[in-house]
Structures are given as C-alpha cells and as structure tokens.
Specification:
There is one protein chain. With 704 residues, this protein is of the alpha+beta class. 23% of the residues lie in helices and 25% in strands. Strands 12, 13, 14, 16, 17, 18, 20 and 21 form an 8-stranded antiparallel beta sheet that branches. Strand 25 and strand 26 form a beta hairpin. The two termini are 25 Å apart. Residues 6-32 and 62-255 have low confidence and may be disordered. The protein binds guanosine-5'-triphosphate and magnesium ion.
Length: 704
C-alpha cells in the first residue's frame, strides 16, 4: 500500500492526526524487567545484554553517543534518542547564515511553481473536489486507505495464513446479476484469447529477453575479489529459447495489437521524464529523514508544515524525527519511529520529475517495500555510516536489510543505484569510514551484478544538510569529497526506457474506494502503453470492463498518461469490490494471465532452512502476493553454465539455482518473464525473510 503525500495542496493533512489515539499506544523503551536483557523499542524483543543490535529486527541498541573502546580511543556510536535529538534541537535553531542554501531548482520547476502559484486556487478547487468525491461524510479521513497496524500480523503473516491473498480477489456474490455476467464475461475473454496471447509486442524485444535482467550487467568491470555469493549467478538463469509457447505468443501479439495514434503522439512534451526513485535501506538508516529534508530544501514542504512537524515531534519527545514525519504520517509510524508503508512524494530536478518512494526498512515490512519499490526505475540505497549500524545492515546478527533491499532492487530490474552514506556527522565525516563502507558494500553490490559504473557513492548527512542539494559546507567533508551532491547524482541517472507501443499494462498498487459515491480509483505505474480519459480498460482478474474517468499525475490532472508514469486513475462503470491491489488494468482485448500454478527459475538466497517439496512460501509478483506450496523441484542448475546439473533434487540449499513448480492457494495476475518482465519476476518469502528470487518460466495452470 502506498501513501501519496501532498504538501503543496493539502497543508492541513496533519490536522487529522489523532493525538488521543497516540496516548493509548504503548510507551517505547520499557525496561525489560529481566536482568541481563535489554528491550528493543521497535519490535519489543528482549535481547541479551551482550548484543549491540536487536536479534530480531537488527535495530541498533540505543547508546549514549560516542563510545570509548578499551584502549580509550574514540570510536563512533549512534544514538537515536540522545545524540540525534540534540542535533535536531539545534537544527531548528539555526541562525540565518547557517540556514541551508537555496536548493538547485530547475527552471522548469521554477516555472511550474510560478504557474502553480497563479493556478493554485484552481488546482486547490480541483483537489477539493477530488477530496469531496473520495470523502465519506462518516469518515474524517479524505481517503479510505487503512494504514497497516503494527500490532496486527505482518504482511507476511497475513499472506502465509492466506487471509490477504490474491485469491480474495472479487468473490462474486451468488445470485447477483452483475456478478454472474462478470464471471461469464471473464471466462469468455479468457477462452477467446488464451491468456498466453498477452505478449510483448516487441517480442520481448529479441532473444535478449530470454535472459533474466541482471545478465545485462555481466560485462561490467567487476570489483576485484568479489566474493562468490548467492546473487553471483542470477544472470546465468536463462529461459528456454526454443519454447514454442513463447514464439507463438510473441507472434500473435504483434499481429493483434497496434497502438493508436494518440498514444504515440508527444502531446505533453513540456513535462520532463518521470523517474520512479525507490529509497531503500536498513531500518533507521535515515531514509525518511533524507526524503523529508530533500523535499523541504526543494520547497515541496511549506514552512508552516515543517514548523508543525517540528513542534509536534518535539512535544512527543521525538524531535529528531521532524523531517521523517514529513513521510511518516500515521500515528503508529510516528509513535514507533519507523516507516511501515511506502510513502510517495514528488519533486522536480533539472532533468526529471522525481517520484520518491520512501520504503520501510524494518524487516517485518519487506512485503510493503517490495510492493512499492517494484515500480522503481532507479534506487537510493541509504546506509547508516555509524559504527555498528552499518554492520547491522550488512547482516550483523543475521538480519541485514541493506543487503536484502539491494538484492531485491536488483531483482526488480533496477540497474542504477545511488548509495547515500548517511549520518556521516556521527563519524565526523571520516574518509576512512566512507572508504571502508564503499569497499564492503561495493563487493556485495558487485555480486548482485550492479555495474561499478552504475553505482554512485555519496557521503552525506541528512540531519546536518551536508551534500544533499549543494556541495558540502562542512570542511571535514569538503576537504576530501568534491563529487556530486545527491541531487546532482539523481540528475546524472540515465532516463529510463519507456514503451508506449505495447498494449496497456498497469499493475494495481493501491485502490482508493469512495463508498459514499461508489467510485473507485487505482494507483500504480504504467508499465506499458498509454491511457487517456474515456479509455476502456479491462480490470483483471475480475475481467470487468471499466472506463477511465480522470487521470492524475503528481496530484495534477492530466489528459494522457504513458508508460513509466506513476498515476492515479479513477474508474467508472465497475463495482469497487472487483478492483484489488495486485490486479492489473489491461487492454480490453488482451487480458493478462491469471495463474494458479507456475514454473519458476529461482536463485536461492542465504537461507538456513532448506527448501523442500511441500515447503510453504509466500510468492510476491509485482503488487500481488499469495500463499503457495513448492510442489516439485524439477532440476538443479549448474552455477556457471546454467545447464541442468541434477534432476529432481530432494532439497535446495543456499546459493543454488533451480527450476521448481509452485501451486498457489489462490490466483495471481502474472506473465512469463519472456513475455513481460514486470509481471514475470517472482520473490519467495518464508518466516519473514526473502528466501529466493526468480522469474516465471511457465504458467502451468490458469485460474479463474
Ligand atoms: P525506517 O523507515 O523505519 O526504516 O527508518 P528510516 O531509515 O526512515 O530512518 P528515519 O529517517 O526515521 O531516521 C531514524 C533516525 O536517524 C532519526 O532519529 C533521525 O533523526 C536519525 N537520522 C537521520 N539522518 C541522520 C543524520 O544524517 N545524522 C544523524 N545524526 N541522525 C540522523
Ligand atoms: Mg522511514
């Protein structure tokens, strides 16, 4: 579930913040009551005194700032509640000459802001209309997105127990005329056009597509001495090029689909290309603070709003989270001091309209991270430079979301990554520490098949505004680092490739329902094709037809949305119950496959418990997640050649690649990887960890 943030037009969004409910939440940092243990304020686990970070979630134990080691030598420690909050207190008392320099804002941005200030009344009116449309009189909130509850089962738990699985897609009530016609309609479509027909018009543009994405990195100059770790051979996974099915799909797709003229026309040339930028990394590395600070520097958060965040954060004893609160909106997120759902915000750089996707770093919310970051064109991997915290992210006490997120991001097909080495203030902007992190993490990124040339390394401090939108002013940093600041690094990314010539495909990330007016809107990234108001779309897996009523990009109404755009689309003529996250909007004649059993080519990650026939897993494919069971392990693949090295092995262990079959408890919208990459990447999770990444090689059974 994504939360879209709009500071420009909706200043009073925080008025809905329910202080009363916050008061009822449990206090943080409770004493454990058990001698020899300390209590994690994030996940509430009782940890042994000897552990520096939480055994369950990896959060670094609160320390009291700078620690001295045995030799009396000064080492750097992190303190979330003491040191950082001191810094935050001083942060808001900056004298004018210490105030951050004005951000580098593009002409386009300035022009647009100027236009906006003129048109603000008009846009506000539009927004108010929308707000009204999506506001029930019985509800205080403008949109009907229930935040994930911390005390409820994690997304993983829910999927494992099958409560929130894709099979919960519209179960059409018996006896309903509309419903039965929907079912019939859907079946007819599926029968007429075997779902396999939905293929990639450019034939997955060549045999190159028969490789998993990361193969493209194989020419990269690897970091020397890169360890042979799990991800090393992901690129060797290849699809069967001779697959008859694949050939026929590609052929039929070309014959069947021709884009309309308006799709190819460049009507909205004034708009710079949209870049979906996922901000990922280990819990507490400073992702939300970085996003909040960036938005503030770029004028996307008003002074009034910032002042409000600062005041409220201080009142709640969380002064250091004032910038993070710009992204963390819910009472629970603020009380816990962690992000739980992906927050979406926008800003303009010189080159791009950037869509920031601020992901949760806590391991319990990796499924939410997957759902949001799967839309990414590029990523900012935020690491905490302080001693112990960086190490925890790399897998200190067995959990390390720096690694897990990097691995996942690469598996989403993201090739360009900016590593933001944050909290450099806590290590006194030490070059040695930065170089150490670059070396350690660089080896891992290389093993994930990120090209060295596609990884940018930026030392910065979000809290002290060093190196974000201008070069560093602190001489401790500027004395040895003269490279790009973060904003320039973002502008140096290559614009993502877009394909409007293929049939429409919009995986649904979020659904916003207005029960009051019975209207439904979906949010997500257009993977292929284009949309405009009045376009007819097929909503899968329900198989219902709907009409596009309005489209919004960056909270502004637009007439056409094209591949790559992150949009909100309101639909007409469909029952809200028939639209679900994990579904897909597609071309009326070209429905995506709805599958209940799949063949996957996977790469097993660093797991402890082997994968067996019968293993229960959660499968994540774009925004869909479903409980599943491994029904067959067909073959083990040789790490080097990718050829079958053994048939029907009994178990799969860490770092092996294999072909397996899975039976889903329900159904998901999916495509074979050779047909559509975005719908053909799969992630297997179990016991709260990602255990394998892979691609869909065959749809074995189609569901209905
Ligand atoms: P999750 O979303 O829960 O994974 O956390 P996050 O990565 O978004 O971290 P968040 O922005 O919530 O910040 C965590 C803590 O780190 C807060 O107390 C911030 O004030 C602090 N912090 C963030 N950036 C910096 C920095 O540059 N320097 C210092 N000293 N503290 C920072
Ligand atoms: Mg956060």
């Amino acid at each position: 579930m994504l939360r879209k943030l709009n500071y420009e037009l909706d200043y009073d969004i925080y008025d809905e913040y329910d202080d009363a409910s916050v008061g009822k939440l449990p206090l943080l940092d409770k004493p454990t009551g058990k001698p020899g243990f300390w209590h994690c304020s994030i996940c509430t686990n009782n940890n042994d005194e000897s552990l520096l970070s939480c055994d369950t979630c990896g959060v670094f134990r609160d320390s009291t700032g700078i620690i001295d080691n045995d030799s009396g030598e000064k080492v750097y420690g992190k303190s979330k509640d003491s040191r950082a909050s001191v810094m935050a207190r001083s942060l808001f008392a900056l004298s004018p000459h210490q105030m951050p320099k004005p951000a580098v804002i593009s002409d386009i941005f300035l022009a647009k802001e100027a236009v906006k200030s003129h048109e603000k009344g008009c846009i506000e009116a539009y927004f108010n209309d929308l707000q009204k449309t999506f506001t029930s009189p019985h509800c205080n909130h403008s949109i009907n997105i229930a935040p994930f509850k911390f005390d409820t089962p994690s997304p993983d738990d829910i999927v494992s127990s099958g409560k929130n699985a894709a099979r919960n897609f519209p179960k059409v009530p018996l006896g309903s005329t509309k419903a039965s016609s929907n079912i019939t309609g859907k079946k007819e479509i599926v029968n007429l056009l075997p779902v396999n027909e939905v293929s990639n018009s450019s034939s997955a543009s060549s045999s190159k597509d028969n490789h998993i994405d990361v193969s493209e990195s194989s020419n990269s100059r690897d970091y020397e001495d890169a360890p042979q770790i799990i991800a090393d051979d992901l690129h060797r996974l290849k699809l069967d090029k001779n697959s008859k099915d694949n050939r026929s799909k590609k052929a039929s797709r070309n014959v069947q689909y021709k884009p309309e003229k308006w799709m190819l026309s460049d009507q909205e040339q004034g708009i710079s290309s949209q870049l979906n930028l996922a901000v990922v990394g280990h819990v507490d590395s400073g992702k939300s603070t970085l996003c909040g600070r960036l938005l503030h520097l770029l004028g996307r958060i008003s002074k009034k709003q910032m002042h409000k965040n600062e005041k409220e954060a201080k009142e709640k004893g969380k002064g250091s989270f004032a910038y993070a609160w710009a992204m963390d909106e819910s009472a629970e997120e603020r009380q816990r001091g962690i992000t739980m759902t992906v927050a979406v915000a926008y800003f303009d750089s010189k080159k791009f309209r950037v869509v920031l996707l601020d992901s949760p770093g806590h391991k319990d919310f990796v499924p939410n991270m997957i759902s949001g970051a799967t839309q990414a064109d590029a990523a900012v991997l935020v690491v905490d430079a302080s001693v112990g915290s960086f190490e925890a992210g790399m897998g200190g006490n067995s959990v390390g979301q720096t690694k897990e997120h990097a691995q996942l991001i690469r598996s989403f097909g993201v090739e360009q990554i900016i590593v933001a080495v944050n909290k450099m203030d806590l290590v006194e902007f030490s070059k040695e520490r930065f170089d150490f992190i670059k070396l350690q993490l660089g080896l891992f990124l290389c093993s994930c098949k990120f090209k060295e040339s596609s990884v940018a390394w930026i030392p910065l401090s979000a809290m002290e505004n060093q190196n974000l939108v201008t070069t560093a002013s602190d001489v401790r940093l500027s004395s040895w680092y003269q490279g790009f600041c973060l904003l320039d690094a973002i502008d140096s990314l290559k614009p993502p490739q877009r394909d409007v010539s293929k049939p429409l495909l919009l995986p649904i990330c979020d659904v916003v329902i207005s029960h009051f007016v019975g209207q439904v809107a979906v949010c997500g990234k257009l993977e292929f094709g284009a949309l405009r108001a009045s376009s007819k779309v097929l909503v899968m897996p329900s198989g219902d037809l709907a009409t596009v009523q309005t489209i919004q990009r960056d909270y502004c109404p637009c007439t056409i949305a094209k591949a790559g755009d992150n949009v909100a689309v309101s639909l007409q003529g469909i029952d809200a119950g028939h639209v679900m996250p994990g579904g897909v909007l597609c071309h009326p004649d070209l429905p995506v496959t709805v599958a209940s059993s799949l063949e996957l080519k996977i790469l097993v990650l660093d797991i402890v418990t082997p994968i067996l026939v019968g293993s229960q897993v959660e499968i994540h494919i774009h925004h869909a997640k479903e409980a599943a069971r491994v029904t067959k392990i067909l073959s083990l693949l040789d790490q080097k050649s990718g050829k079958v090295s053994r048939n029907a092995p009994r178990i799969l262990t860490a770092r092996q690649s294999a072909i397996i079959e899975v039976a889903l408890d329900g159904t998901v919208c999916v495509e074979e990887f050779s047909v559509c990459r975005a719908l053909g990447r799969a992630f297997l999770r179990a016991s709260g960890s990602t255990i394998a990444v892979g691609i869909v090689t065959r749809v074995l059974e189609q569901g209905s």
